[in-house]
Write a structure and sequence with these properties.
The structure holds two protein chains of two kinds. By secondary structure, chain A is α/β, with parallel strands linked by helices. Chain A is built from ten helices and 15 strands. In chain A, the strands form two sheets. Chain A has an eight-stranded parallel barrel with strand order 2-5-6-7-8-11-12-13, surrounded by six helices. A two-stranded antiparallel ribbon of chain A has the order 14-15. The longest helix of chain B is centred in the last third of the chain and has 13 residues. Classes of the chains: A alpha/beta, B alpha/beta.
Chain lengths: 257, 201
């Protein structure tokens, strides 16, 4: 009676939605509130909104926008972008968000995870980890929308974040972002095996089959995608879409936990 | 009128929005007097059991809730932590619960690598007929997010069961007292339907 969640990850730049390829070349997709309305009609499991330039610009995701999303969304949603303190989180929860996503702020100050979990409960704290392969074929954690490399190993950092109280780990492959070539299953599996909390696989999903792989082989409890839900066809026409309830249940048939 | 009990934990706005969507007025209140006068009550909540009971008690809300529900027989729906608060006790802290339903709240065991919290969409198996289930089916999924679950002492109180690692009580109902572990306000049309059913109860 349980099945993994399928989550559109929607990137915000200013007041608009964009989609990137390998964290670059943001292409304008449309209005976020309009997208929420469509995902309501399509009965999406959950939404994640990330303001991709917030950390670089030393600001937090727009409270006004989160409030407008909250007024429309009849599904749970998470927001991230430039969050550095519990006060900001409290305002975002009041505005209607179920969860907050922290990334750069948590790397700079791991105590933020502990603080956040103590104040709001682990279930509302997602730690997102952006990962890229370096020249030496090693995978490292990147921050500030992928602009700054850290010395952190993604699997070790995921473990530490979960120990500190993260309720979910979102593992985001920068190399796969926007390529629609499938998840980095090896990375997803290593992280899933290392943490006792649900893992959201992100970066690379190009088909429903990729979701199945992310669950079966990657061990993720939630499957996220961007391009797949905003593009249609080989020429990438903008079209907000989401699989039907029947498609989803067939995909994970007999996967009861 | 439906009153949503505000004890400063959880997202009340989304519950109110859900009622607004189905055209039913619902008011958020933190006043014991208003709880006593309410036509129907919603006890929402996300967070720590004992901390919630602590706040309910010091705000005079737990006495008002018990009075309203046991003396005035005001219908009540507990949502998520709100359902757990209606039970006798929880493994999350030492404070006793409201004890309006003979049940206990237990933590999921993470043996065999079960990921906790349970977070996601489950379908329900109804255990008995109820107006709350009108228009719903076993195919309808509902959104769950919790690390603790309720188990009823009297199986006759069981309304819905579902599974995560083990079977657990996803909903109970004892006459006018009901609780659901999932979030109807975040469960699309089936969730709105359940709230509408409660409003009509």
């Amino acid at each position: 009676m349980f099945r993994p969640r399928i989550i559109p990850v929607l990137l915000l730049k200013g007041k608009g939605l964009v989609k990137t390829v390998r964290f670059k070349d943001p292409r304008y997709i449309g209005d976020p509130i309009n997208a929420v309305r469509i995902f309501n009609d399509l009965e999406a499991d959950e939404l994640v909104f990330l303001d991709i330039t917030a950390s670089r610009e030393n600001r937090c995701v727009s409270l006004d926008l989160v409030r407008r999303i909250g007024d429309e969304a009849f599904m749970p949603f998470a927001v991230g972008g430039g969050i550095t303190g519990p006060d900001q989180m409290e305002r975002l929860f009041k505005a209607g968000a179920e969860k907050v996503v922290i990334n750069t702020g948590a790397v700079g100050n791991p105590g933020l995870i502990e603080d956040a979990a103590r104040h709001f409960g682990s279930q509302s704290i997602i730690v997102s980890i952006d990962v890229r392969q370096t020249l030496f074929k090693r995978q490292k954690v990147f921050i500030r929308d992928g602009r700054e490399k850290t010395r952190l190993d993604p699997v070790a950092w995921a473990g530490q974040a979960a120990d500190l109280g993260a309720g979910e780990i979102m593992i985001h492959s920068m190399d796969r972002d926007g390529t629609m070539t499938g998840y980095d299953l090896n990375l997803v599996r290593l992280v899933s095996e290392a943490v006792p909390v649900p893992v959201i696989a992100c970066g690379g999903a190009g088909s429903l089959e990729d979701f199945r792989q992310g669950f079966d082989r990657g061990g993720a409890h939630a499957l996220a995608a961007g391009s797949l839900f905003v593009y249609h066809g080989p020429r990438k026409a903008v079209l907000v879409n989401y699989p039907s309830r029947t498609e989803v249940s067939e995909l994970f048939d007999n996967k009861e936990i | 009128m439906i009153h949503i009990v505000d004890y400063r934990m959880g997202n009340l706005r989304s519950v109110q929005k859900a009622f607004e969507r189905i055209g039913i007025p619902a008011k958020i209140t933190a006043e014991p007097d208003e709880v006593m006068q309410a036509g129907k009550l919603i006890l929402p909540g996300v967070g720590h059991f004992s901390r919630a009971m602590d706040i309910l008690q010091s705000a005079g809300l737990s006495d008002a809730l018990i009075q309203a529900v046991t003396v005035k027989k005001t219908p009540i729906l507990g949502i998520c932590l709100g359902m757990q608060l209606l039970t006798n006790r929880s493994e999350e802290g030492d404070m006793p619960g409201l004890g309006l339903v003979d049940a206990e709240t237990i933590r999921f065991s993470n043996h065999s690598g079960l990921k906790i919290p349970h977070m996601g969409w489950n379908t329900l198996r109804p255990e008995k007929p109820s107006p709350l289930y009108n228009g719903l089916s076993e195919q309808d999924p509902f959104y769950f997010v919790h690390s603790y679950y309720v188990t009823c002492k009297d199986p006759r109180d069981r309304l819905f069961v579902t599974s995560y690692g083990n079977l657990f009580d996803a909903g109970f109902q004892k006459d006018h007292i009901a609780g659901v572990q999932f979030h109807p306000e975040k469960s699309h049309q089936p969730g709105l339907r359940l709230l509408k059913n409660f409003a009509a109860m």
